[in-house]
Design goal:
The protein has about 240 residues and is of the alpha/beta class. The chain has two domains: about 5-145 and about 200-240, Rossmann fold (3-Layer(aba) Sandwich); about 150-195. The protein has helices spanning about 5-10, 10-15, 25-35, 55-60, 75-80, 120-130, 145-150, 200-210; strands at about 45-50, 65-70, 85-90, 105-110, 135-145, 155-160, 165-175, 175-185, 190-195, 215-220, 235-240. Strand 1 (about 45-50), helix 4 (about 55-60) and strand 2 form a beta-alpha-beta unit. Helix 3 packs across helix 4 (about 55-60) and helix 6 packs across helix 8.
């Protein structure tokens, strides 16, 4: 399995394919989350794998001190235009510790982990978040509910965006949800493959325990309704550094 995320997330076609992601939904989720966790004014926050920064920009607009990190140089270059006194961005691998005992909250949102081929790397993502947190700080994870996704997996589809035909196929293999994306653009054939490990609540609990985190809450959607293994679209977890 290649490290697909290093090339695909830096591709302009990735952002083209997913440009219709719902910013209004993202803002509603962040505001619901903030209403629930009630961070004190001036809380210091980190977003692992921030992408183009749609979540961190909302957090910063609410007055918090926010840092967004991502492995994609192109995404961070784009985000730099939004930097301010309380919003900063850096190219960084979320598996590596960025600092120790520095943040009140660490976020990993919109299924931004599980990309790695080895379970050890998934653990490093959680452990680096735990290391960055102050004692008593919180780690918030928003992941897909793999049971819901697998039960409704669409094996093949295609969509046309700006004249480019994207052909997409999905399958489950060796514990990973795999998406093949093929298209032709600028007189070249392109093929990217996304791999995301089908991680469950039990997997996250194991990662949390190993990292010195304790799960406090679990939700099943962006309105923070209760989690149902078969019916919930999302798996949203809040854990605390003990």
């Amino acid at each position: 399995m290649q490290e697909w995320y290093k090339t695909w997330f830096d591709s302009p076609y990735y952002h083209l394919l997913y440009r219709q992601r719902d910013d209004k939904e993202a803002e509603g989720f962040i505001r619901s989350l903030i209403d629930f966790i009630k961070p004190p004014p001036g809380s210091v926050m980190l977003d692992q794998a921030c992408g183009r920064g749609r979540h961190v920009r909302i957090l910063a607009s609410l007055g918090f001190e926010v840092t967004g990190i991502d492995l994609s140089e192109n995404s961070i270059s784009y985000c730099k235009q939004f930097e301010s006194d309380n919003l900063h961005f850096a190219v960084h691998d979320m598996r590596r510790i960025i600092s120790v005992n520095s943040f009140d909250y660490v976020f990993n949102l919109f299924t931004s982990m599980g990309y790695f081929r080895h379970d050890h790397d998934q653990q490093l993502t959680v452990s680096s978040a735990a290391a960055a947190l102050k004692k008593g700080g919180h780690y918030i994870v928003d992941f897909m509910n793999v049971h819901w996704v697998i039960s409704r997996l669409i094996s093949e589809m295609h969509k046309t965006i700006d004249g480019i035909e994207f052909y997409i196929s999905r399958r489950v293999e060796n514990g990973f949800i795999i998406k093949d994306i093929k298209f032709r653009a600028e007189n070249h054939d392109h093929h990217y493959t996304e791999y995301v490990e089908a991680m469950t609540v039990e997997d996250f609990d194991r990662y949390f325990q190993h990292a010195g985190l304790k799960r406090l809450h679990i939700f099943g959607n962006y309105s923070l309704q209760p989690f149902d293994r078969n019916l919930s679209e999302r798996l949203i977890l809040i854990a605390q550094k003990t």
